[in-house]
């Protein structure tokens, strides 16, 4: 694909006060981009409504404005219509701060997966059409030699709230011209390519100072967007991601990294048996570990699945799987607590682990994974990883959620586990636990609501949110809860 001249005419950044031209509805927040919040605004002259993204004025913010403006003007890209540079105090602030304001077209249809979620009969043919639109938009971005680097469901928006689906790519907060020097590991874990993860590992090794021979940076290119596209199509066709963390407390576990690096994923029969071979082949060619073997955007648009007008109207499981509020929130918004920390290699990525998702498919796959590794060496490795990752480490926020009632609830569970006579050593059979242990756990969760360490302790014992789905290791559960309480007491005395 021949690239267009990369340094096209720069965006015209206006310095006149934005409020002379637009009325900003500060109380109407439309969403949060990776680099700043988005609010509703109205053009005072025409009365037309737009979306306004507010950024702190910086080289990076101006770069985002430039690249997004450069890629605008396409039917599958959210258009930037105005850019302002003003010093302004937002509501609640006492002093003005230099900011960049991006005025963008209003996407009234919301997020793509919200639409799919409410689509009673979402078919493979419709999924193919959506994938094609995303590909056409990505082709336009790549034609400027730009890597988007944050392609994910949250950044796929719909122009209108109608029956037809018109998708546009949004949020260029991490887009960058690809000069062969993409070294900063910008990624959202579920959609990260092997090369982006390797760039992160390499950068951390360099910063540690332990490897002086690592002089040149590890670089990757815009093919990372094609990997992300493959993950999106996979999720769109079944409702869950191909890669997920096996460690409850980690968003990106060692196992997940290994599977991404090796390109290890599958197509479970229940959800994939009726999906066409062409669709699976398309995913396989996008989720190819070696970037030089991965499809380019041109090859994707020429692939048989995209070109075939006779794709079957097979009804997919996707809407049913993501229809549950908890499952939908975890799949769609699990990237999320502090978006600004996602891309910083020096900070911990704070995302909700897919392992804590209510998505029944993820839970089923986890159970299958654990059962198949029960007597293997991988079991020892998994246990080691869980210990290394600190599955029972209490954060300061977790500790603040302890109370006398919460402590009593945990002690009741510990006492029950230690005093209950097992049928076999260290194992409480379901007939012994029954409603009693379930009731104790539900009571404890209610009194320690939001405490991640405690939730993880129960999830490790096959807790699905309502009950234990298999036998409980009483010694391990009692020990884990005791450690959590001990840590809470230590933190409270600091």
TrEMBL record:
The keyword Transferase applies. Signal peptide: none annotated. PANTHER family: SERINE/THREONINE-PROTEIN KINASE (PTHR24349). Residues 24-306 form the Protein kinase domain. The lineage of its organism: Eukaryota, Metazoa, Cnidaria, Anthozoa, Octocorallia. It comes from Paramuricea clavata (Red gorgonian). InterPro entries: CDPK_Ser/Thr_kinases, Kinase-like_dom_sf, MAPKAPK_C, Prot_kinase_dom, Ser/Thr_kinase_AS. Belongs to the protein kinase superfamily. CAMK Ser/Thr protein kinase family. It catalyses: L-seryl-[protein] + ATP = O-phospho-L-seryl-[protein] + ADP + H(+); L-threonyl-[protein] + ATP = O-phospho-L-threonyl-[protein] + ADP + H(+). This is non-specific serine/threonine protein kinase. It is an enzyme of class 2 (transferase). Keywords: ATP-binding, Kinase, Nucleotide-binding, Phosphoprotein, Serine/threonine-protein kinase, Transferase. It holds the Pfam family Pkinase.
């Amino acid at each position: 694909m021949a690239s267009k001249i990369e340094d096209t005419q720069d965006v015209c950044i206006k310095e006149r006060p934005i409020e002379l031209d637009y009325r900003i509805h500060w109380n109407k927040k439309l969403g949060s981009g990776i680099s700043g919040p988005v609010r509703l605004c109205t053009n005072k002259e025409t009365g037309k409504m737009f979306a306004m993204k507010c950024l702190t004025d910086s080289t990076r913010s101006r770069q985002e404005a430039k690249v997004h403006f450069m890629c605008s003007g396409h039917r599958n890209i959210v258009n930037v219509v105005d850019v302002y540079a003003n010093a302004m105090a937002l509501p609640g602030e006492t002093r003005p701060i230099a900011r960049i304001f991006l005025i963008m077209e209003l996407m009234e249809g919301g997020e793509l997966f919200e639409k799919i979620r409410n689509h009673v009969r979402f078919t493979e043919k419709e999924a193919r059409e959506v994938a094609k639109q995303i590909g056409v938009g990505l082709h336009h971005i790549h034609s400027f030699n730009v890597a988007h680097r944050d392609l994910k469901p949250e950044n796929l928006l719909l122009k209108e709230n109608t029956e037809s689906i018109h998708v546009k790519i949004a949020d260029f907060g991490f887009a960058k011209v690809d000069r062969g020097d993409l070294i900063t590991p910008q990624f959202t874990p579920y959609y990260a390519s092997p090369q982006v993860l390797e760039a992160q590992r390499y950068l951390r090794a360099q910063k540690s100072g332990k490897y002086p021979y690592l002089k040149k940076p590890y670089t990757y290119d815009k093919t990372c967007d094609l990997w992300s596209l493959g993950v999106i199509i996979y999720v769109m066709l079944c409702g869950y991601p191909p890669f997920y963390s096996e460690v409850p407390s980690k968003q990106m576990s060692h196992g997940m990294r290994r599977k991404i690096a090796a390109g290890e994923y599958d197509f479970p029969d229940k959800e994939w048996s009726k999906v066409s071979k062409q669709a699976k082949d398309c995913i396989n060619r996008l989720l190819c570990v070696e970037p030089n073997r991965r499809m380019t955007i041109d090859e994707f648009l020429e692939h048989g699945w995209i070109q075939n007008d006779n794709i079957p109207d097979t009804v997919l499981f996707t809407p049913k799987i993501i229809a549950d509020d908890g499952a939908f929130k975890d799949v769609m918004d699990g990237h999320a607590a502090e978006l600004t920390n996602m891309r910083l290699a020096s900070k911990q990525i704070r995302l909700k682990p897919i392992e804590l998702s209510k998505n029944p498919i993820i839970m089923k796959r986890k159970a299958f994974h654990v059962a198949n590794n029960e007597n293997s060496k991988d079991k020892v490795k998994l246990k080691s990883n869980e210990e290394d990752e600190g599955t029972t480490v209490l954060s300061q926020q977790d500790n603040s959620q302890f109370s006398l009632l919460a402590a009593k609830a945990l002690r009741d569970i510990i006492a029950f586990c230690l005093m209950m006579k097992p049928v076999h050593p260290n194992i409480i059979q379901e007939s012994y636990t029954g409603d009693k242990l379930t009731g104790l756990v539900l009571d404890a969760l209610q009194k320690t609501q939001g405490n991640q360490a405690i939730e993880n302790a129960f999830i490790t014992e096959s807790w699905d949110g309502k009950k234990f789905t298999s036998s409980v290791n009483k010694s391990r559960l009692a020990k884990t809860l005791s450690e959590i309480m001990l840590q809470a007491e230590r933190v409270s005395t600091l």
